[in-house]
Amino acid sequence: MTHQEIIQSWRKQQFQPVYFLHGTEAYFIDAVSDYAEQHVLNETEKAFNLTILYGKDTDHLTVVDYARRYPIMAERQVVIIKEAQDMKSLAELATYIETPLNSTILIICHKYKTLNLNSKFGKLLKEKAIILEAKSLYDNQIPDWIQQYLQAKKLKIIPAAAGLLAEYLGTELSKIVNELDKLSLNLALGSEITEKDIADNIGISKEYNVFELQKALGTKDILKANRIVQYFAANPRKNPMPVVIGSLYNFFSKLYILHFVKNLPEKDLLAALQLRSAFFLRDYRAALPYFPLAKTEAAIALLREYDLKSKGVGYSSTGKEDGELLRELVWRILH
To answer: Based on CB atoms within 10 Å of each CB, which residue in 9, 185, 229, 243 is the most buried?
Structure first.
């Protein structure tokens, strides 16, 4: 089940004795755990029927002791094991999971990695528990996820703004949600979020961001590219070198692929480049005349070279800071 399906079933008062939440995306696990902690029991019931344990500080005997208890003045009790990946005797819970108590909801939160479900314990979980596998989203899935999250808050966002957020905030959903929640506090319901809103509320510049740098490089706009690089050099914390190089590498890698698939129908092009809409495809098409295949390959090689230089690999910086390295990199790409 997805985290949304689990929460929806709880809203309908449909409960199972054991839930096992595991995977690399902690946000989905936390969303389920937080809902159980806050909403499955009412405030009066929580006092006697909500137990929260931490894997590092507990063992299977303690968990079973709590799980085997009957609820007090309530239909059910909730037992949550947080950070269960740190619980040494986790597999020993098998004896309880084989015959769980129906009046107990046991929620096991195994974060940051998946459990081997082909193990003896894993097979038992598949048979007896509701399982959520919380998978991390790919880079190209983040803009759509942002759009869906904001839609649930009665807000809209233009594609460029969603892409800008995804580029700068990465794929860690907890971090993204934190920024989106802060942003939503300053906007009226039904508002459409633009790049200006992001610049005003989150601090990502509308004019000086990595998307604009990509466009400037793609069309050989030397003046604009230099202005953006100057801004990046003056604000290194907002524009760290690894993030800039990673974004540019992603841009030129997709441009490289486009050289070989440019005659395909648009739907197939979007799939090949892992782009969510034609809105993002236009920048790559605009760059094709300025970066034939050989120059695209050269740009990718330069990005690899400067990524290593920025990390001090096989290179003596002789006092050069990231801003100066970025100026060199952009100059060499452009010229």
So the answer is: 229
Burial class (CB within 10 angstroms; exposed 0-12, middle 13-18, buried 19+) of 217: buried
Q: What is the DSSP string of 240-307?
A: -HHHHHHHHHHHHHHHHHHHHHTTS-HHHHHHHHT-SSHHHHHHHHHHTTTS-HHHHHHHHHHHHHHH
Reported pTM: 0.71
DSSP letter string, 81-144? EETGGG-TTGGGGHHHHHS--TTEEEEEEEESB---TTSHHHHHHHHHSEEEEEPPPPGGGHHH
Share of the chain above pLDDT 90, in %: 70
DSSP 178-217: HHHHHHHHTS-TT-EE-HHHHHHHT---SSSSHHHHHHHH
Mean pLDDT calculated for residue range 28-51: 96
Query: Contacts by 292-295 with C-beta closer than 8 Å and gap 24+?
Result: 292/259, 293/256, 293/259
Cα gap 122→118, rounded to integer Å: 6
Between helix 142-152 and helix 159-169 the angle, nearest 10°, is 110
Report the Cα 270 to chain-centroid distance in Å: 21
- 213 token code pair: 């740098």
